[in-house]
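Putative bacteriophage protein: structure, please.
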Amino acid sequence: MNNQTTPFTPEQLRKQAQEMLRQAEQLEKTGVTKDAIRRDMVPALRELMQAKHRAQKAVDELVDCVAELETRVGKFEKLVQEVLR
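Here you go.
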């Protein structure tokens, strides 16, 4: 595997720097910063995790109820078989 880096021309570096400056100015104008994004995302993530937890609890309860139902149906089937003998 060859780990040589491709040399950039001064013009390419200037273009890249200008683009980065343009993007930085745009972020400053819109007021969008990493902290602002994080501030908005943390509550949304918390709500998402809470919804996931509620859904998981509901699924777990459903699984428990189905297991109980299967047990009771099995007992009822045995009772019916005993009565019909």
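Notes: The CA atoms of residues 66 and 72 lie 10 Å apart.
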